[in-house]
Amino acid sequence: MSISSEQLNTIEKYDEEKRLSYLLQQVVSNQEIWILADEHGCVMLNTEDEDCVPVWPNEEFAQRWATDEWQHCKAEAISLSKWYSRWSPGLVDDELALVTFPNQDNQGLVLFPEEFEEGLRKETKKQNRK
Q1: Which of 36, 55, 65, 116 has its CA 20 to 30 A from that of 80?
Q2: Model-level pTM?
Q3: Contact yes or no for 35/55 (Cβ under 8 A)
Q4: What is the distance between the alpha carbons of residues 112 and 100, in angstroms, rounded to a whole number?
């Protein structure tokens, strides 16, 4: 599903909690999560306390981030099953957190992989009830 520029701008202006909710809904609906990556691996961000992997709900939002120092990066989809089997445990092992759906101002909630996975599982149950 393609998203218009207007929709992208509107959704990106959501507050952090609302963007997280949108991210969880989209990831569960589409069964994929998006990262930015180059030949060296995925893009990493640093907060004062954590090294983080930023994640987005779809290709358009991830690709919007591929500017300036990230312009050589490409949006990459990770299937939800691969996320559960490889990424989540890998992030835990590497002591990495996630920045959920950062906007153009680098604002996004920082979650640990377990917290993010719990959110995904709750969203899956919610969508299965519909």
Answers
A1: 65
A2: 0.92
A3: yes
A4: 10
